[in-house]
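Run: sequence + iron/sulfur cluster -> complex structure.
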Amino acid sequence: MEFQTLSSPHSERVNSVSEVMSQVLLALLPAIIAMTYYFGWGLLIKLVLASLTALAAEAAMLWVRSRPICPALLDLSAILTAWLFALATPPLLPWWMTVLGMLFAIILVKQLYGGLGYNPFNPAMAAYVLLLISYPVEMTSWLSPRMLNEHLLGFGETLGAIFQGTLPAGLTWDSIAGATPLNEMRLQLGMNHTVSEIRQGPLWGSYGAKGWEWIGNWILLGGLWMLYKRTITWHIPASMLGSLLLVSLFFFSLDPETHPFGLFHLFSGGAMLGAFFIATDPVTASTTKRGQLIYGAAIGLIVYIIRTWGGYPDAVAFAVLLLNLAAPTIDYYTQPRVVGQGDGQHG
Amino acid sequence: MTLPYSHTPNGRVLWTFEGGVHLPDMKSLSNGTAIAQAEIPSRLVLPLQQHIGQPAEPLVKAGDRVLKGEKIARGAGIVSASLHAPTSGLIREIAHHRIPHASGLTAPCILLEPDGEGRWGELPPPMPEFAGLDPGKVIERIRWAGIVGMGGATFPSAVKLAPGPERAIHTLIINGAECEPYITCDDRLMRERADKIVKGIRILRHVLDVTGECLIGIEDNKPEAIVAMRQALDEEKLEATEVVVIPTLYPSGGEKQLIRILTGREVPSRGIPAHIGIVCHNVATAAAVADAVLEGRPLISRVVTLTGGGIAQPGNREVLLGTLASDLIAWQGGYLPGVDRLILGGPMMGQALGSDQVPITKGGNCLLVPGPGELPDPGPAIACIRCGRCADACPMQLLPQQMYWYARARDMDKVQEYNLFDCIECGCCSHVCPSRIPLVQYYRFAKTSIWGLEAERRKSERARQRHESRQQRLERQEQERKAKLRKKNEALQDKPAAEPAADPKKAAIEAALQRAKEKKAKLAQEGVAPQNTAQLTEAQQRQIREADQRRAEAAPHNETSE
Ligand code: SF4
Ligand code: SF4
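>> structure
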């Protein structure tokens, strides 16, 4: 009898890229639900819009590059980029900015570099930074969470706001808008208020801002689930959050009235999402274990520096892109010791 | 973080190795029944090379009648192994025949037509008093028997048993881990022939003059084998020898991994265990040694696992070397419908065979026939997403994705910089890769091309040297001729000669010095470390070197149990 000859191993494989990606998407669901609860329909509408744009852009580019289309769409990486982008941007972001962001992310940042696996920069973060620099106002206009917002928009109203830029009669942007906790803190500190004074305001919850701290919790839950499922390893989230916490605790202990407490940093802005879902993007992160510790710690440090002394209220996107750039070098200098080489003798 | 070691119930330290994968072990498919008796097929195909090293030289010719156990091919050189007739019969011919190899290679084989009687020829006398004999005598017997590493490494055991006088062996490790899924031949052997294995271990201890202890490593998924081996140890009263139960984790049976688990030591990169005072033998090898020394019987059969959902009656069987896979499968009830693959070895490191018309050789431990849907094709590969899972799984702590990257780009220098030659081809990286990249295939490709390049470079180097020494010889002759001429002239001119006479001598000395220097340089260039082989001839040294290389090449089998 004659047989097929495939090369070893012949074992049944335990995972695939689409499985990994769908685990990440699944882990985002609690955060998505929480965010929708606190900020309304905007996120869901953006999720759909961003996903469709990303898939279309990916398909078109694969067609242009004459690559097989279906496997690449099914790997779900484009959807993940879309979701991360949608989660990171304000709920009522004008539709064309979402489309623009996705086209930039998929076409320029991902496909022109060779597609999944070859892009040096995280596409969602690159798109976020591009839009933040070009349209700083729109990219920082957040809503107030539901407990502080008497006019939470309905579904139709949200559609109108996103696609036509119109608000229901009687409402102004100012009446529904709310600063992000980081922005608020920055603003108030700039006006020489002390942290304890600032925290008297209506915005604040037990360790972060109302609404935001709970979203942070749900992101954390999703992240822990990914750790449990071994979708990601602990190195990057732990080192990033750990360094952010340590640095902020250091300055907090120097002067607690001008430096917010450490937990505030972890539960504000993009820190939690960044630590578990963005900095862990395998394609653009460091791959060695020691490298990942350095990579995560450096992101945490840069986030703190930009937040405290830089020109932007949040900095996760910048920090991630910077470290994306450094990842190959970090990898090169942190190769593990091969078994049997150097001083590996025990016993 | 976990500690790098743990303790067994009786207080022994067990070390861990990095990486490795948990696999469904699938052992119960074939380990429930006793080893079936050997049957005599209608023909046997015996490749002259069933081991690493030089092929054996045939001692018979077509038309010869041979008896069971008669030597039919002689080990050629130091690293080689003899071959004996597995049963009595007629030598049909010595010809090229398909051998167990993925690309369907053929190689010279002795074709034997059994007469069905299985009549033994004359055997050397048993050596029950081996303990009083010089180890060299016992090794001679083991060499005679043609024993090789039977876990799949097939390195001639006699060579491994003579590590050289300056290398004291403090620990003997017996590999009963059998970490590859599906394979159960060592498991059954330990359950049924533990006493023979233990007797073999006693012989190995004596021959190697082991100063310390002997550790028998068995994975904890073989409780019956563990009990049987412990009992046999008690009965034999073998001192300083212990069964150590190790956790089931692939590839714990890889030689380097097992040594790490049991001793905490690491075999130096590209070195052998003897460099750190350890020798490792497989349980089946120990049993074969007992047969050879205590009964004077050569290696003519082995236990083979026949398993997988595509075989009617999976099980283990004693198989005469040279039996065709097709005969074996037929004895197990044949193939089930829908079978499209035949794997020699286990699912992780086994070779997919193109045909079942190939013989079982000394290293052939398992034939695996997956049923429909079993061990499915991983499907097309997509791009590497740099997830690092391969690196986490790699028991050698390599960076598989980097090696893949450079192997694909055919950057052979870079891929070696990333320690390609430390890769044991265990397949853990491919197994966990979410992009389904056949990583190991790339490493094999890279290794083969590097060997190819090296062989070419050596060849041209040799040609260059030949050319140069010819050039020198001609020059020398020319000088001598000139000197003679001059002398003649001078003599003719009847003048006292001041120095001319010194010239030819000096030239000759210089040439000799030059030759010696060149030879040294050449050896250095070929990477010959001044090992304990220094006193051997150049030809012998080359032989050992080439064998070493092929040993590395044979790594796919190497790891699981040798
Ligand atoms: S496991 Fe596969 S996809 Fe992940 S880094 Fe290794 S080669 Fe790349
Ligand atoms: S096959 Fe080689 S690279 Fe892959 S896991 Fe095994 S030793 Fe590491």
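>> summary
Residues B 384-390, 400-401, 404, 432-435, 437, 439 surround iron/sulfur cluster (ligand 1) (CB under 6 Å). Chain A is about 60% helix and 0% strand.
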